[in-house]
Amino acid sequence: MLEQGEHLYASNFGGLWTDRIDALELLAHRVNNGQINQDQEYLLRQWIENGYVILEGAVDETLCSELARELATIFEGGSETVLYQDPEAPPGIAKTVPPGLPAERMRLVDLYGASRLAADVLTSPAITEFLRIVFDEAPLCFQGLTFEQGSGQGLHQDTAYVVVDKPLELAAAWVALEDIQEGSGELMYVDGSHRLPDWNFGGNSKHWDPTLHGQDSHTDWSKWLIRKSEELGLEKKIFRPKQGDVFIWSADLVHGGSPVGDKNLSRRSMVGHYCPVGRVPHYFNYLPSQTAKVPYKNGFFSSSYYQLSHTTFEITEKKIGKFRNFFSRR
């Protein structure tokens, strides 16, 4: 294993222990010490080498079905507590869901702040157990996105948009709330792309700030992701899971939403973005009232939209939630 004074990580931005150059050696050491069992070793080897793991049947199907029904009801009947983002609106603007909201490209934000079911899905034991191993501490879910239909989002890396104080100490979990059908805008990803060279916005940042870096730099980065992946022979794949399957990916894995071939198909799914509980999500720096890290089951939650507290999940169980449009208060 490498010594502390040597260059430990593939990226200049550091990372988790699984991002170290000698990660496979560290994995073997943990297995030999009894810290990691054989099933976990198999998953962690995939994670280190490919940048993701697939956990089949990781979330209870009944829980997924209940949340899928709740999701359909929200889009049909609206909600005074649930918030959504229009992809055409400026970043950060969220509104309560009106009745009959068209589902195309819309996403609900931090639904766990208004739904106990959503909180239960994102803290399912298989998810939090795996993240606890790669984080070496409890996971903090600090952002959630929930979809009725495919997002259609182009290939990207989360580190450009989802920001923590240590940019590569980040992971995401995508949960299929129903069987995902071909043509519904399935999740796509580029195998092994988490090891692409660093792209530095403005010369020193993994986070794209449109004010500082401009749209041209974003366009150049988007094209580079595809070109560089093709140059390295990395394969683009489609994830077409069954209900309850989970796809967990590391911070820099290139992924996106396939084009929606049939707009009549739903793609009910939920994404949670997580970091180790000791890390600091970016919005903590400019929203001091939103810095609560609320324990729940085997993890923690925070939100830039909802006022979470130790009683939040008692409240959401009764479908009463408090929210704020943080963009208007920045």
If you had to describe this structure to a student in words, what would you say it looks like?
- The chain is of the alpha+beta class and 330 residues long.
- Helix content is 26%, strand content 17%.
- The protein has seven helices and 13 strands.
- The strands form two sheets. Strands 1, 2, 3, 4, 5, 6, 9, 11, 12 and 13 form a ten-stranded mixed sheet that branches. Strands 8-7-10 form a three-stranded antiparallel sheet, with no helix packed on it.
- The model is unreliable at 317-330 (pLDDT under 50).
Which CATH top level class fits?
A: Mainly Beta
Oligomer: single chain
What is the string of SSEs from the N terminus onward? HHEHEEEHHEEEHEEEEEEH
Query: Whole-Å distance between the termini?
Result: 45 Å
Q: Shape, please?
A: globular
Radius of gyration: 19 Å
Could you name the CATH homologous superfamily? q2cbj1_9rhob like domain
Helix content: 25-40%
Instruction: Tell me about the largest β-sheet.
Output: 10 strands, mixed
Instruction: Assess the beta-strand content as a share of residues.
Output: 15-25%
Mean pLDDT: 91
CATH hierarchy: architecture:
Sandwich
Q: Name the poorly predicted regions.
A: 317-330
- By helix and strand content, what is the structural category? alpha+beta
CATH topology: Jelly Rolls
Number of discrete helical segments: 7
Query: How many strand elements?
Result: 13
**Total domain modules:** 1
